[in-house]
From TrEMBL, chain A:
<dbReference type="Pfam" id="PF04158">
    <property type="entry name" value="Sof1"/>
</dbReference>
<dbReference type="InterPro" id="IPR051733">
    <property type="entry name" value="WD_repeat_DCAF13/WDSOF1"/>
</dbReference>
<keyword id="KW-0687">Ribonucleoprotein</keyword>
<dbReference type="InterPro" id="IPR001680">
    <property type="entry name" value="WD40_rpt"/>
</dbReference>
<dbReference type="GO" id="GO:1990904">
    <property type="term" value="C:ribonucleoprotein complex"/>
</dbReference>
<dbReference type="InterPro" id="IPR019775">
    <property type="entry name" value="WD40_repeat_CS"/>
</dbReference>
<feature type="region of interest" description="Disordered">
    <location>
        <begin position="419"/>
        <end position="438"/>
    </location>
</feature>
<dbReference type="GO" id="GO:0005730">
    <property type="term" value="C:nucleolus"/>
</dbReference>
<feature type="repeat" description="WD">
    <location>
        <begin position="105"/>
        <end position="138"/>
    </location>
</feature>
TrEMBL record, chain B:
<dbReference type="GO" id="GO:0005730">
    <property type="term" value="C:nucleolus"/>
</dbReference>
<dbReference type="InterPro" id="IPR015943">
    <property type="entry name" value="WD40/YVTN_repeat-like_dom_sf"/>
</dbReference>
<dbReference type="InterPro" id="IPR001680">
    <property type="entry name" value="WD40_rpt"/>
</dbReference>
<dbReference type="InterPro" id="IPR012952">
    <property type="entry name" value="BING4_C_dom"/>
</dbReference>
<feature type="compositionally biased region" description="Basic residues">
    <location>
        <begin position="467"/>
        <end position="484"/>
    </location>
</feature>
<dbReference type="Pfam" id="PF00400">
    <property type="entry name" value="WD40"/>
</dbReference>
<dbReference type="Pfam" id="PF08149">
    <property type="entry name" value="BING4CT"/>
</dbReference>
<keyword id="KW-0698">rRNA processing</keyword>
<dbReference type="InterPro" id="IPR036322">
    <property type="entry name" value="WD40_repeat_dom_sf"/>
</dbReference>
Length: 451, 532
């Protein structure tokens, strides 16, 4: 007869010295854990509630400008610095950690319409309505610590040209930058005149963006409601697409450089694949007034938009609705937004002369987290996402307080779109089958595509 | 910049080992059910996301199976016989001779002849035991060190005793009321609402103390807030057996008519009522996997039921007063002074005799309870309690975060706080606990019945009659005018219902006309259902 009985010796299962950690034994058998789904559901509900308790996205405001903030630029070489330009020609360099001005770049006579930094972060290019392009030397971080905060620097170069400028963007890893105005001009740092000019039609070009993956491709949006793609290696523009309303700003997805998203005047953002521009990949609808600016997160998974309706929204790159909305009573029309280069912060520049610093994830705990804290946050996030479709959890996760005018405007828009949809359905029901074709929204807003 | 993904050839450095049947079974266990059928989905984005998730589930099940294979510290107990020996003839003395000293110390008999039949309960981790004699003797013991923590005498009949969430609190069903005591013998609460309780159970995850009393009333009390969640009359008379199904936390009650009913705290009617025996149900036990139930009746039969189909799987002979399933699926059934342990040794869900033990003649066994995470069976009888070894009955590997027999004070306090945070609401108790979070199939909207419509109409009319009319001055609120206004309000409330009735009548007439227009041979093809 062979017998074996469970017999546990205490020293195998308890710690040796009092300085040791307690021993942990795991058995993942599901029969030891009953009602797992109910426990997960309760945890998801608690996680959703805790999320809402800790949701404090606003960090601080940076004031100093005396007119509306019209342009912002990130410094690719330094995470903490941000350039901003206002409608009265004042350009400032901000330190986001202390929320103070590091130095100022005075010189522009009119509004600063575009700001961009070179890839090494040493040169700042600005352009404005006074038809000038100015290049500035960006001080080194070590220098700024010695001098006093209000430092005035002289421009490296000033180039005067024929007409007012509307936007500027610098090439990735190159020496060229492009300005948008009466036409698209390509400049070199050292030349006082553009080395190349592109034009398609006689309308103003409002914004310009270089592709982060392909440094010779750039996209522009014009006041003739078009989006045009240029390639520097070709002598003529590559492709043009005309929409029903004007695009205020564009941003390329840094992780998928063939996709870009256009912030449109009709309150929506349209994501396009540059290889197939006859149809939008995704329409992002949530704003109630014109979308003024858009910027992608460095992860390429979400982007932030600032709109004329005084709110900042964060969208998923493939999602139709925003995951987050930020608003304050003091923040007026938002003209420019930027996602910080580490993907954790959002900076918005608005009409009330302030720049505001927000967290990208409203309930995120800032600072260094212990590994256990991090694991716990990840677990709570995962369990909340697993059950976020159930009604009780969904009600809490989705809930956002909206200012009354925006709430009313949003419900009005919904009523209008529903009425339109009903009318279309009735028209289709009462006409010959197949005579009225159902065009998806992704295609409906595009008038035509021109080679 | 075009991102090029280089095609990496998977080189097999190690020979690919085929997964054995056993491994496949363990992986299946960790998968917790079937994968979702993604073929029906129209939404391509959702389909892609779900496919990725299903893949991850497969990987985690594989990892858990690997962890079980390589990382578990101990393997279970077993009893193997050679030749013509039979396992059920082996006595405890023979086993004691073969095992180590620590295990042989777990076999003992405690004789306390004065204080009546003893009932016992173990804490979740198996370390602490509470024994209560019918004449009022209660003893709290630490089984690891064989320490008596506290014993006291309440000088009243004690019918049942149960541990609450840890060894610090236990509840005793005394003569008239239920009392809660702390581990140093202090009476914490007297729960008067339960009445004269015959059986107590504690639902760990919900912190619900359940009791069934002499009049057949079932009480559910939340011990964290003290609120009485449910108070139901079972309606089937006095019951002596009440057990918890550990899989879904449903309470099973055995009645004197031979029926077993299953209850949840949020409904006044039982979930299931099944006729199990031809006489009173004397004992019940639930298997930890949730679909095996054993019931014993006065007609000397033990029936094993499949709870998914509510069918008898097997009938065994025996008149049992106390039964319990162990963590590993062995069934202990006690008759008089003899305990028979059954097990499904061939793995085919057929239970056969495994071991047996008879205590001193004349002692009546009141309760059998397997000790969690140990190969020990504790027997409470009329002259005290005994403990015997049953190899292979306990789960050899415990999980520290579920139940830890080597818990320190800090770990116990931490666990208490965490389980309170994860306390489940009583609505989560249902026959199929996997339904939470699943998609409800789309049901057709039912047309309101005539009675419903009438009821709605009456309610609307009542509402219209009740609304107070403003008293106007200067002769504008004359009685005639007031009554006229009231009649108008009632007509307005009735209008939508009358319109619907008119519509229905019109439709019927139209259909009748259509039918009449058709020649007689085609009238059977006339539309029966209204065109949508």
């Amino acid at each position: 007869m062979k017998v074996k009985v469970i017999s546990r010796s205490t020293d195998e299962f308890t710690r040796e010295r009092s300085q040791d950690l307690q021993r942990v034994f795991r058995n993942f058998d599901p029969t030891l854990r009953t009602q797992e789904k109910a426990v997960e559901y309760v945890r998801a509900l608690n996680a959703a509630k805790l999320d809402k308790i800790f949701a404090r996205p606003f960090i601080g405001a940076m004031d100093g400008h005396i007119d509306a903030v019209s342009a912002m630029a990130k410094n690719p070489a330094n995470l903490k610095w941000l350039f901003s330009g206002s409608m009265d020609g004042d350009i400032r360099l901000w330190d986001l950690a202390t929320r103070q001005t590091v130095c100022q770049f005075p010189g522009h006579q009119g509004a600063v319409r575009g700001l961009t930094a070179s890839t090494d972060g040493r040169v700042l290019v600005s352009c404005g309505t006074d038809s000038t392009v100015r290049l500035w030397n960006v001080p080194l971080p070590s220098h700024t610590q010695d001098d006093s905060s209000d430092n005035d620097t002289k421009p490296l170069a000033t180039y005067v040209w024929k007409s007012a400028f509307w936007g500027v963007d610098h090439q990735e890893n190159g020496e060229l930058f492009a300005t948008a105005g009466a036409q698209v001009d390509i400049w070199n740092h050292n030349r006082s005149q553009p080395i190349n000019s592109f034009e398609w039609g006689k309308d103003t070009v409002i914004s310009v963006r270089f592709n982060p993956g392909e440094p010779n491709v750039l996209a522009t949006s014009g006041s003739d409601r078009s989006i045009t793609i240029y390639d520097l290696r070709l002598s003529s523009p590559a492709r043009k697409m005309i929409m029903m309303t004007k695009t205020n700003s564009l941003a390329w997805n840094p992780m998928e450089p063939m996709n870009f998203t256009a912030a449109n005047e009709d309150c929506n953002c349209y994501s396009y694949d540059v290889r197939k521009m006859n149809e939008a990949r995704c329409v992002h609808r949530d704003h109630v007034s014109a979308v003024m600016d858009i910027d992608y997160s460095p992860t390429g998974r979400e982007f932030v938009t600032g709109s004329y309706d005084r709110t900042v929204r964060i969208f998923q790159y493939n999602g139709g609705h925003s995951r987050e909305i930020y608003h304050t009573k003091r923040m007026q029309r938002v003209f420019c937004v930027k996602f910080s280069n580490d993907g954790s912060y959002i900076i918005s520049g608005s009409d009330d002369t302030n720049l505001r610093l927000w967290k990208a994830k409203a309930s995120e705990q800032l600072g260094v987290l212990l590994p256990r804290e991090r694991k716990n946050h990840e677990y709570l996030e995962a369990v909340k996402n697993r059950y976020k479709h159930l009604p009780e959890v969904k009600r809490i996760v989705r809930h956002r307080h909206l200012p009354k005018p925006i709430y009313k405007a949003a419900s009005l828009r919904r009523i209008m779109t529903d009425a339109q949809r009903k009318k279309d359905e009735r028209r289709r029901a009462h006409s010959a089958p197949g005579s009225i074709v159902n065009k998806p929204l992704r295609k409906r807003r595009i008038i035509k595509e021109i080679e | 910049m075009v991102v090029k993904v280089a095609k990496v050839q998977k080189t097999n450095l190690l020979p690919v080992v085929e997964q054995s049947e056993e491994e496949k079974m363990t992986v299946k266990k960790y998968l917790r059910g079937e994968a979702a059928d993604l073929g029906e989905l129209q939404d391509k984005k959702l389909k892609g996301q779900l496919a990725v998730r299903e893949d991850l589930y497969g990987k985690s099940a594989q990892a858990a199976a690997q962890a079980e294979k390589w990382l578990m510290p101990s393997e279970g107990g077993y009893l193997e016989v050679e030749g013509i020996e039979k396992t059920w003839r082996i006595k405890q003395d023979a086993i004691a001779a073969e095992v180590d000293i620590l295990s042989s110390r777990k076999q003992f008999d405690i004789v306390l002849p004065d204080f009546g039949p003893y009932t016992l309960d173990f804490s979740l981790s198996g370390r602490y035991m509470i024994a209560a004699g019918k004449k009022g003797h209660m003893a709290l013991l630490d089984m690891k060190n064989m320490d008596l923590i506290k014993e006291f005498q309440v000088r009243e009949t004690v019918r049942d005793v149960v541990f609450l969430h840890n060894q610090k609190l236990f509840a005793a069903a005394q003569k008239k009321y239920v009392y809660m005591y702390s581990d140093n013998g202090t009476e914490m609460h007297c729960l008067k609402e339960h009445g004269a309780v015959t059986k107590l159970q504690f639902l760990n995850k919900h912190f619900l103390l359940t009791s069934i009393n002499k009049f057949g009333q079932l009480h559910y009390q939340d011990i964290t807030t003290g609120e009485m969640i449910g108070n139901y009359r079972t309606g089937l008379g006095r019951t002596d057996t009440m057990e918890v199904n550990p899989y879904n936390n449903v309470i099973g009650v055995g009645h004197s008519g031979g029926t077993v009913s299953m209850w949840k705290p949020t409904s006044a009617a039982p979930l299931v009522k099944m006729l199990c025996h031809q006489g009173p149900v004397t004992a019940m036990a639930f298997h930890s996997n949730g679909h095996l139930m054993a019931t014993a009746g006065m007609e000397r039969k033990i029936k094993l039921w499949d709870l998914r189909k509510f069918e008898v799987l097997q009938t065994l002979p025996g008149s049992t007063k106390a039964m319990q399933f162990s963590q590993r699926g062995l069934l202990a059934a006690a008759t008089g002074s003899f305990v028979q342990v059954y097990g499904d040794l061939s793995g085919s869900q057929e239970y056969s005799r495994y071991m047996g033990h008879s205590i001193a003649k004349g002692y009546q066994i009141r309760k059998v309870q397997f000790r969690p995470y140990e190969d020990v069976l504790a027997i409470g009888h009329s002259k005290g309690w005994s403990s015997i070894l049953i190899p292979g009955s306990g789960e050899p590997n415990f999980d520290t975060w579920v139940a830890n027999p080597f818990e320190t004070r800090k770990q116990r306090n931490e666990k208490e706080v965490r389980s309170l945070l994860d306390k489940l609401p009583p609505e989560t108790i249902m026959l199929d606990p996997t339904k939470i979070g699943s998609v409800k199939p789309a049901t057709k909207k039912e047309m309101p019945t005539k009675q419903d419509i009438e009821a709605d109409k009456e309610a609307a009319v009542e509402g219209a009659k009740k609304t107070p009319l403003k008293k106007k001055t200067k002769g504008r609120s004359k009685p005639s005018k007031v009554t006229k206004k009231k009649q108008e309000a009632i007509m307005r409330a009735k209008k939508p219902f009358l319109e619907k009735q008119d519509e229905k009548v019109k439709k019927k007439r139209k259909r009748a006309e259509e039918e009449n227009q058709l020649p007689k041979s085609l009238q059977r093809f006339a539309r029966k259902a209204p065109a949508s």
